[in-house]
Amino acid sequence: MMELQGATAANRLRWKGPAERGRTSLLLVLAIAGGAACARIAGGTDVQSGLVGFGRAAELPSRERVASK
Fold first, then answer.
1. Is the Cβ–Cβ distance between 57 and 28 less than 8 Å?
2. Alpha-carbon gap, residue 39 to 12, rounded angstroms
3. pTM metric for this prediction
């Protein structure tokens, strides 16, 4: 039981810490910018570019959650 608690604590430190939150935030910002740029290049309006960017950003965490399970 103690080993399981230790592994759980280590997992929380590794995946819930400030470094992981920063990495995830950076990935979300880059996904928003990349999606918006692709939509803008394709001739979309500013609003469409923003929607595509936020859509790409929403896909990223869901993919990571699926991959981690």
1. yes
2. 37
3. 0.59
